[in-house]
Amino acid sequence: MPSGNPFFRAKRRYDHLPPDQQTNWWVVAGVVGLLLVLLLALWLYLQYKAVEKPYYDLKGYRVATEASLNQFLRQGRNRREFAQLEQFLKQAGVADATAPENLLRQGSDWLDIDEPPFAIPPRDYWPNMVATLKLIRDELVPAIGPVDIVSAFRSDAYNRKAGGSKRSKHKSFCGVDLVPQSNISRKELIEELRSLHARLGPASHMGLGIYSGVRFHVDTCGFRHW
């Protein structure tokens, strides 16, 4: 090994050190190595935190973030069409039932089925949601408190991949899946929903579906329950 090699010079210097100094050298090297490992771990953690997840947890369901929504609205004519949907809901008097962007959520399993988290329903379907939003605002919320939408309109592709019914009211922009904002128990929630469904009766055309946890479905396109 050439004598000018830095490694060779360092090794020769180390070999001439007394044993106690060699021990100190290893202690220093160990401390430096440990610090480097800690710095690497910190950097990896910060990198992980810097990568924003495209969703947040809502009662155990994955809801796409506002950043994901903005990305969707920047595509094609989506922002213009969404603005027109907002205006329609205002004219129909139901814009206060929920934030209009919530109605674009296709579902909570879009990552699993590789489908977009948002979709804008065809204009012909927009009137279908009016009665449903009125029912949520005027009947449902007074009974169980504020709710959040986890699924509204679904495209045919999304509904098929998600295993939805071929007659799903999500496809016609009439049905929504909801979760309560409060910590109401499943038992109490079911009692309130069934009481509401029975009270409104066929005149409301209310469809009610109760799923696991505190997730449930509401529409106004056919009086039934499951």
Automatic annotation (TrEMBL):
Lyase listed as a keyword: no
InterPro entries the record matches: Peptidase_M15A_C, Zn_M74/Hedgehog-like
Keywords: Membrane, Transmembrane, Transmembrane helix
Pfam family name, one: Peptidase_M15_3
UniProt xrefs under Gene3D superfamilies: 3.30.1380.10
UniProt key word Methyltransferase: no
Protein name: Peptidase M15A C-terminal domain-containing protein
Membrane-spanning ranges: 25-46
Domain Peptidase M15A C-terminal, residue spans: 127-195
Organism: Microbulbifer elongatus
